[in-house]
Amino acid sequence: MQFYKNQSKLANDFSTFLETKIFSDFQIINENTNTIFNCHKFVLFARSSYFQGLFRSQMKESQEGKVEISGITDQTMEKILNFLYSGTIEYSPENAFELLLATQKLMITDENFVNTLISFIQQNINIENAMDAFVLSYSFNIENLSTFCSSFIQKNIKELQKKGIFNSLTEQEIHIILDTNQTFLEKEIQKLRSLILWAQSKLELPLSTNELTSFSKNQIEAIRNKISPFIHKIHFCEISPLDIFPYSSIGLISEQIYTNINNLNIFLKKSNEKLAEFLRFKFRNDFKNFQIFVPKISTPKGSNIIRSFSREHYLLHKLQESIPTFDFINSCSLIYSSLKDGFTPKEFHLKCDNKGPCLVLFKTQNEIIFGGFSSVDKKKEEQKDKKKENQSYWISDPNSLIFSLKTGPFDFSNHINVAPIINTRSDFAIFYAPNCGPQFGTDIVVSSSKDPSKPFDTFYSSYGDFGVTKFTLLSGLSQNHRKTRSFFAGVEKDWKIQVMEVFAQENSN
């Protein structure tokens, strides 16, 4: 048997489709420049997981035959589309980052090209671009590039600091750097000092921590306000009282934090090693409310899920730590319980719409607890955009996140696994539909039939597709893997949700 291959001719023929736009049936619109790219669905579907999901869905973009995409320049989009059609692309140190970003946003399925691009970027990493490469790789969970950049940064940390690379980072990038487990800055006091220098740079103040004593009260207050959104990410329990005192004495760090560190330091000297480790872990991020023993707090009235947790006070503190903008401990109330209110879309929306930021907890029949947080108000968003009643649509929420909880015996590794929304995909964070329950991207989905009065699990199962769409894939998990799809509920599909509860701030109405 003989075969004839002429892939070059085939690639040229497909390129002609893109150039002539003949039979094009879909438009990609640059949200920033309004440039229109006429394409063909069958090519996009074959070459991009992003478009596979889009075309398989009943989303507005699929039905209207167009989609708006941001964060990709016209020139880069042109190159990427030409590659999708022809399999050929020209890349250089100047455009490699833009191309990699585009491949991740559009979820290009050509792994050979993506890996080639990653290898090329690794070969061209330098002091000037290493931090940008790390932020990009971390944002899209490109582990091999992230590890490479982390190693490079760690080896060249002094040179990066000397050139002020950290000071040029954006607030979003600072969040990423402080959220990672990387050891660029091995000590917490180094993190604090770098954060203060970053704030001084953004405020155009002299760049030396030795200059702090000469700053005015207004300047100190400005620095304090600038670092305030990040201060909870500093593990003060690992900083000595002597190191923190200079900042406390000028009002940059609160006196209460210094007192807590000092008290803990004194107490730990009298404790055995195991108890010391326990205390350091437990109060790692909670020095504002520090006490030697857990403060007595009340569980939101009526919550079945929290009371079923073997250490409910610990759970509340960990939820508060993961979602600092949501006062879960002091002013939170249960607004919906599937056990009390009914497990239907109708009751869910009746109780939860127009309630402001909400936290959702699920408990499965096998006692697994997971959930999500949305900072937006569905109904207010609907009114703002003048959406029609009974219409389904996506809601942008750059602050949303999903999480899982370990419910086994307490130990030092027991924690909440938090997956924040990927910033570049925040427009698809929350899905609203009258016949659906909570839906975070396509990562956590609670569906029902077309009848909102029917229970959630009557016709359509609850499921999740974690790692394929919107939220950050956690370390150790890979896309389209069985372990990843079953990460939250313990099974890949047909989640058996026993209880669903929704919490809101008491003053949010």
For this entry, give a set of tags.
509 residues, alpha+beta, Potassium Channel Kv1.1, Chain A, 3-stranded mixed β-sheet, BACK, TLDc_dom, BTB/POZ_dom, kelch repeat, BTB/POZ domain-containing protein
Structural write-up:
The chain is of the alpha+beta class. It folds into 3 domains: 1-124, 2-Layer Sandwich (Potassium Channel Kv1.1, Chain A); 185-293, no CATH class; 298-505, no CATH class. 41% of the residues lie in helices and 12% in strands. The chain has helices at residues 7-20, 41-47, 49-56, 60-64, 74-86, 96-105, 111-123, 130-139, 143-155, 157-162, 171-179, 188-202, 217-227, 241-249, 255-269, 273-282, 304-308, 312-322, 338-341, 345-352, 378-384, 482-485, and strands at 26-30, 36-39, 66-69, 332-337, 358-364, 369-374, 393-395, 401-405, 416-420, 430-432, 439-440, 444-445, 497-505. The strands form 4 sheets. A 6-stranded antiparallel beta sheet has the order 4-13-5-6-8-9, sandwiched between helices. β5 (358-364) and β6 (369-374) form a beta hairpin. The longest helix is centred in the middle third of the chain and has 15 residues, at 188-202. The radius of gyration is 25 Å and the shape is globular. The relative contact order is 0.07. Residues 24-93 form the BTB domain. Keywords: Kelch repeat, Repeat. This is BTB/POZ domain-containing protein. Residues 304-509 form the TLDc domain.
